[in-house]
Amino acid sequence: MNRLFPSIPLVAEEDSAFLRSNNLVGSVVDVVKDKATLGDEVTEDNILKAIDRGGKDAYVFAPEPATYWILDPIDGTRGFVKGSEALYVVGLALVVEGKIVLGVMGCPNWHEDCSDNSIIVVQENQSSRSGIIMVSHVGCGTWTKRLSDILTNESPHTWTRCSVDSCQMVQGARVTIPESQTWKSLPLSGLFDAKTDSENIGEGNILLLSACCGSLCKYLMVASGRASVYIQGKKATSIIKVWDHAVGIICVHEAGGKVTDWEGSSLDFAADQTERRLIFPSGGVLVTNGSLHSKIIGMISSNSSVL
Predict the structure, then answer these.
(1) Spatial CA neighbour of 223 closest among 249, 243, 199
(2) How far apart are CA 243 and CA 247, in angstroms?
């Protein structure tokens, strides 16, 4: 990316300071060299410089709109540590003057089954995992392709267009929330009980999908029609980071969905004027299939005492 777009800065989650201070440089360099195809160009110095290109001190932004990449190399670290046992996502987005115009997500352990229990299935049935890559460009839709087809160069021109689900009623929605938050901590809990068993959903219940790692995986679920809603509350003890949301936003929007804060306002990627690393959504982040968005915003507003 640096070779193709040397003038475009990068905002990313990591730099090499942690590797250096914990004696991990050699291990990381060995892995990169083993996987790389660039031969002599893959040196320790080049690898560390590449990692540091996205660090917080790599580039100073002015207050005006800017063009930059946002990279999340591993969203869902707990899933990545488990290896084949859980979902994690690699995400890359391009922001041009405050607008996200391009996004790519890769999920190696993604399962093609879109049933309500698919997140449970993906953790139990390794043979049925194909992995996917999701690509979105403003005005061009959101598309997916199996990673196995890309790696084997099978059906090189065959991509599947993504659409959000058609759920019109909040009670019939499939909802996903962060692993770190409980249903009771979110405002809709005052109106609906959450059930994880799709066979026993009754009046006043919503279906809460099993937890999966990382924010971007939940965006992927909404963009692909697997989930109707992803809701994340803002906690006083944590800050919402741009790399957890940027690529997911364009993928959901181009699939027909909607992403805002809890008041219905778009997420402002220029709010953090110096580093472009933080966003400050009111209440939290709401991701829906679009049809449910205004209804849920109204419900959140009516239950504002929970915020």
Answers:
(1) 249
(2) 8
Mean pLDDT of 247-274: 95
- pLDDT tens digit sequence for 111-121: 765 444 444 33
Average pLDDT over residues 214-242: 92
Find the helix packing angle between 215-223 and 246-254, rounded to 10°. 10
30 annotated among ligand-binding-site residues: no
Which residues make Cβ contacts (< 8 Å) with residue 27, sequence separation at least 6?
none
Question: Is 72 marked as binding a ligand?
Answer: yes
Residue 132 has pLDDT above 80, yes or no: yes
Q: Is 215 helix (H, G, I), strand (E, B) or coil?
A: helix
Query: What whole-number distance in Å separates Cα of residue 79 and Cα of residue 81?
Result: 5
Q: Which helix (H) or strand (E) holds 223?
A: helix 215-223
For β-strands 67-75 and 10-12, DSSP reports them as: parallel
Q: Which two tokens stand for residue 154?
A: 């099978």
CA 150, distance to chain mean position in Å, is 21
Q: Is 149 annotated as a binding residue?
A: no
In the three-class reduction of DSSP (H, G, I as helix; E, B as strand; rest coil), residue 208 is classed as strand
R_g of the chain, CA atoms, integer Å: 20
51 is in an annotated binding site: no
Tell whether 275 is in a known binding site. no
